[in-house]
Amino acid sequence: LHRLTVALDPPYDVVVGPGAVAELAPLVGGYRRVAVVTHPELERVLSPVVDTIRGIRDDALLVHFDQGESSKTLVTVEHLCRAFAAGGLLRGDAVVALGGGVVGDTAGFAAAVYHRGVAVVHVPTTVLAQVDAAIGGKTAVNVPEGKNLVGAFHQPEGVLADTSVLATLPDRELRCGLGEVAKYALMPEGAVVADLVERFGGRIHARDAAVLEEVVAACAGIKAGVVAQDPEERRGLRERLNLGHTLAHALETTSGHELAHGECVAIGLVFATELAHSLERVGPDALDRVEKLLSALDLPRRVPEGAAGADALLDVMRRDKKAKGGLTFVLPGRDGLERVDDPPARAIAHAFAAVGVRT
Ligand SMILES: NC(=O)c1ccc[n+]([C@@H]2O[C@H](COP(=O)([O-])OP(=O)(O)OC[C@H]3O[C@@H](n4cnc5c(N)ncnc54)[C@H](O)[C@@H]3O)[C@@H](O)[C@H]2O)c1
Questions:
Q1: Best substitution site from 47, 72, 169, 173 to test ligand 1's pocket, by max atoms within 8 Å of Cβ?
Q2: Are 174 and 205 in contact (CB under 8 A)?
Q3: Ligand 1 neighbour 108 (Cβ under 6 A)
Q4: Burial class of residue 27 in the structure, from the number of CB atoms within 10 Å of its CB (0-12 exposed, 13-18 middle, 19+ buried)
Q5: Fewest CB atoms within 10 A around its CB: which of 18, 105, 149, 165?
Q6: Could you tell me the pTM of the whole model?
Q7: Ligand 1 touching residue 327 (CB < 6 A)
Q8: 241-293 pLDDT per residue, tens
C-alpha cells in the first residue's frame, strides 16, 4: 500500500492499493454511528468491499441513491440527510462515501451540511475519483443552471483508494480516469506519471494491479501536493489542474455527453499544447510528447466526425465559470503551467484545426 499525506491542518492520509479499504477500521472506529452512502448497483458489484466495511462496522447504516450525473442534485442531498436523521446519525458521527465522483461529491456535500458538518471518509471506486475527485475536499451538486454550482469545501478524514475495485470498472469509466492521468503526466511535477505510462501503457488497459497502484499513487500524490498549497483555490494554484479542461468541458457539453470526460480531456490536452505552441510558449517537442502519451493510453487526439464546430465550442467556453466573460486557458510554458486569458483568435483557430474542429 502507498500512504500519502495531504498536508493540511489537520492533515489526512490517502491510502492507495489493493485492500486499502481495510484501513477504514482506524478511521471510523471511534465514531458512534457510521452511514455508508453508495449506489444500489455498486453495492452489488462491490460486495467484497461492502463485506469488509460490514466486518469493520456491522452496525453501519447503508444509504442508497441512483447512479448517474443526473442524481447529483439537492433533491438527493435532502434524501441523504433525511436518511441520516432517520438512521440516528448525529453531530459527531461519520459518513463513508463509497463510489465514483458522483457519490463523493454528493455524499461529501451532504456530510458538509448535515448538522453543519459531520466527518466524511472517501472510498473512491473509479480511477477518476481515486486520482482526483476524492482528494481536496471539493464537494458539490448540480442545478439546472449549471454543474457543481452548489457546494462546499469539506475535507475528508481520509481517502481509501482501493485499487482492487478497478477490476469491475466499465471501459468507458477507465478511459474517463485515464484522461486525468494524461493531464497529470503533462504537469511539470508529472514526470513519474509520464514515465509509468511510457513503460507500462498497455498494462494499464489490462488493469494490471501493480501498475494501476503505482499510477494512481503517483497521480494522487500530485493532486495532494497542489491541494496542500492552495486548499480553497485562493492562490490560483489549483486552477493548474484544469489543464486541457477548457475545451474538454465544451466538447462534453456540445456532444450531449456522448464523448466521455476522459476523451474530451485528452483532446483538450492536445488543443492546449497546440495553442501554447502557436503562442511560442513551447517547442515542437511538447507536441510529440502529448501525442506519444495519448497514444500509449489509447486516448483520442482529434474530435470525432460530427463534433461541434468552433463557434459552438467558443460559445460554451466563454460561459465557462472560470472565464469571467472572456476565454481562459491553462497553458504550458517556460515557467510551467500558467493561466492565459484571451489569446489571439489566430492561435485559437490553429489549435482548433490541429484537433480537427471545423472553423
Ligand atoms: N470534487 C472534485 O474535486 C471533482 C473532481 C473531478 C470530478 N468530479 C466529479 O466527479 C463526477 C464524475 O465521477 P466519476 O467519473 O467517478 O463518475 P461516477 O461516479 O458517475 O461513476 C461512473 C459509473 O461507474 C460506476 N462505478 C463506480 N465504481 C465502479 C466500480 N469499481 N466497478 C464498476 N462500476 C463502478 C458508477 O456506479 C457509475 O455508474 C462528476 O460529477 C464530476 O463533477 C469532482
A1: 173
A2: yes
A3: no
A4: buried
A5: 149
A6: 0.96
A7: no
A8: 999 999 999 999 898 878 889 999 999 999 999 999 999 999 999 999 999 99
Tell me which residue has cell 457546494.
151
Cβ atoms of 34 and 60 within 8 Å: the answer is: yes
> What is the pLDDT averaged over residues 284-303?
97
**C-beta 133 within 6 A of ligand 1:** yes
C-beta of 99 in contact with ligand 1 (< 6 A): yes
Phi, psi dihedral angles at 185 (to 5 degrees): -60, -30
Among the atoms of ligand 1, which is closest to the Cα of residue 139? Answer: 1
148 lines ligand 1 (CB under 6 A): yes
pLDDT over 90 percentage in the chain: 91
Strand duo 12-16 + 328-333: pairing: unpaired
d(CA 100, CA 121): 13
Give me the torsion for CA of 105, 110, 116, 117, rounded to 10°. -60
Paired residues of 341 in beta bridges:
328
CA 73 / ligand 1 centre spacing (Å): 15
DSSP state of 60: P
pLDDT of 4 > 60? The answer is yes
Question: Span 184-199, mean pLDDT?
Answer: 97
Q: Is 129 in the pocket of ligand 1 (CB under 6 A)?
A: yes
346 in Cβ contact with 272 (< 8 Å): no
Ligand 1 nearest-atom number relative to CA 261: 15
